[in-house]
Amino acid sequence: MTTADAKIETPSRTLTAKRTLSWVLGLPPAYYVLAILIALAPAVSATLINPNYWFVILKQSAPLGIAVLAQSLVMRVRSIDLSVSGVFAFSIYLASSGLLNSYPPFVTVLMTIVIGLAVGLINGALVAYVRASAVIATLSVSAILIGIVQFMSSGRAPGSTPSWLRVLTSGNIYGLSYSVIVWIGISVVVALAFRFLILGRYFRAVGDNPRAAEITGIPLARTIFVSHTLAGTLTGIAALVQVSALAVGTIKPGFDTFMNALAATILGGVTFGVDRGGVAGPFVAVVAFSFLFAMLTVFGIQEPGKLIVQGGIIALAAIIYGARVGRV
What we know:
The protein is mainly α.
């Protein structure tokens, strides 16, 4: 190799190294969090690095993972959906209360998805066409759903989940739960849709600048409406998966359902109008959260401590994003 060749190759390697470093630094915080947790896991507990335990982590993550996909859809167009807890509460009650026991199993499956779809349509209409605040509109819908469940149940927990439905979580292929397969399948479909369909371009354009997108001819209201409709449908599917993981139904899915979904979405690189993480980022974030909570459980940290850690991670993610765009 001549001296001239060496001089040409050295800048090329330097440029490649800089590009690689820039790519790594541009990854959503979820990747860093998961990498750190995996590095710490052997020192915490040998169980945490057992491959079989990772299958359990994925199985527990499936409902949240699908809910995060739903949340990421609306956040891409600068909206938000706070009706997650209401959809979960209503769907869980419907599937475990015995109201649909006289019908074929597919009716229960369809009803939970239809509930999510209906809520998505209502949210979309209120936010996109009525121009109501997304926070107020979706929170109101959630409160109404939870109120209906409380009224119908008289405050009592419903019955047990049908055995055929529990197979969705307990059944597996080579150790991988059916629920995880559903989660991965939906993630792939969403990723392909954003990559190849015009809807993905609409979502990105609206997220970048809603007014500019509308001026260029993109149907702003319709795009926001579709995002909420799709999000509601995915939330219904997530609720169905959550029901399958429960032996006994509950009327209190908890505020943490929404908080975890929002936190994982942000940690995965999807914020209001910003989509750095794609579909993979939120997926990694969900796994990171589940792994983090498992690690905190090993240390004996209860729910209050987990909420504090969760809030700290969200704040850290916000600081990182702010620093990247020069706001910090």
